[in-house]
UniProtKB/TrEMBL annotation:
It comes from Dethiosulfovibrio salsuginis. This is CRISPR-associated endonuclease Cas1. GO terms for molecular function: DNA binding; endonuclease activity; hydrolase activity; metal ion binding. The keyword Cell cycle does not apply. Mn(2+) binds at E160, H225, E240. NCBIfam families: cas1. InterPro entries: Cas1, CRISPR-assoc_Cas1, CRISPR-assoc_Cas1_C, CRISPR-assoc_Cas1_N.
Length: 332
């Protein structure tokens, strides 16, 4: 299954028989079999015809809308009647502070593990000239031990933030010139690498959102990220363990292989923005990562990261319904 991206102004997506036609004016740019599509991401002033939108909803295909700069705005998802049991378990867990904290610990542990694996991979490849990456990896391991015993949600979130600072401080050693990263920043991103990370994480939101809806979960009810207005807090929770392996790896690979050009970024009042060429290249790299097969050490299942997202959402649903621990994806 594939995600269709509409990332250029003036595009129109319409149905023709059993296929989708991506058009601009009278020209048909691309034809995609409807059966191959599981979601659509609109990141520009593009148009989806109303009959096609109705067809998407009938087929269970979600449409996710981003601003041209990459900020997630919302999703159109099919109405589903199933999943009331797991939704009730979500709401009941909101009232159980100990249970909520235990699930949040699992999320942070999954994120810290993913960050540590990425740094260790660079150590094994000989990029750790002065031991900085090994020390950062060791520090993240120590934070994982502390997170596993955290007895307060604010303290746990503090450990997560400290881990992110250690992790991103190591990025200058992971990137080849002219690319670099002086800490994580966003809203607006102030450099090209941060712009790529922000846009990539927004793409990941759509993938995890599909998985959450498919598992019958309420995307608004998270625990590490508490419910807030219309924020998809559970999506933000479950995407944490996928950030390093999917988006971060995609960005690092693009920079180090020479597949991204510095002049594809523009400085504006909204910070650094990506041109259509940069967005297309990043989308392609993220799709490659999502379609990469890895083996989950816990279950022994070998499949793509995209399918692992579905499995993890179902694992989260099972943990809630059966009052069990949640196990993050472990691979490598």
């Amino acid at each position: 299954m594939a995600t269709v991206y509409l990332e250029s102004p003036g595009l129109v997506l319409r149905r023709r028989g059993g296929a989708l036609e991506m058009c601009r004016g009278d020209s048909i740019l691309k034809v995609i079999p409807m059966a191959d599509v599981d979601s659509v991401v609109v990141s520009s002033w593009a148009k989806i015809t109303t009959p096609l939108m109705m067809e998407f909803l009938e087929r269970g295909i979600s449409v996710h809308y981003l601003k041209p700069g990459g900020r997630y705005m919302g999703s159109v998802t099919p109405a589903r009647s199933r999943g009331w049991e797991v939704k009730m378990a979500q709401y009941e867990t909101l009232r159980d502070e100990a249970r909520r904290l235990n699930l949040a610990r699992s999320i942070v542990l999954g994120k810290l593990l993913g960050q540590r694996l990425l740094l260790q991979r660079s150590v094994y490849r000989g990029k750790d000239i002065d031991g900085t990456l090994l020390k950062a990896s060791t520090d993240l391991k120590g934070l994982s031990r502390m997170a596993s015993m955290a007895e307060d949600m604010d303290y746990l979130r503090g450990l997560e933030g400290h881990g992110a600072a250690i992790y991103f401080a190591s990025w200058p050693l992971l990137l080849r010139p002219p690319w670099s990263l002086d800490g994580r920043n966003r809203r607006p991103p102030r450099d090209p690498v941060n712009a790529m990370l922000s846009f990539g994480y927004t793409l990941l939101v759509g993938v995890i959102h599909n998985a959450v809806i498919g598992a019958g979960l309420d995307p608004l009810v998270g625990y590490l990220h508490p419910p807030f207005r219309n924020r998809s807090s559970l999506v933000l929770d479950l995407m944490e363990e996928f950030r390093p392996a999917v988006i971060d790896r995609a960005v690092i690979s693009l920079c180090n292989r020479g597949d991204m050009e510095p002049h594809w970024f523009e400085l504006s009042p909204d910070g650094v923005t990506m041109t259509p060429s940069a967005r297309r290249r990043l989308i392609s790299s993220v799709e490659d990562r999502l379609n990469t097969e890895v083996t989950d050490r816990g279950s022994g299942i070998t499949t793509t990261f995209r399918r692992h997202a579905d499995f993890q959402a179902r694992r989260w649903a099972s943990a809630l319904k059966d009052d069990e621990d949640y196990r993050p994806l472990v691979f490598g």
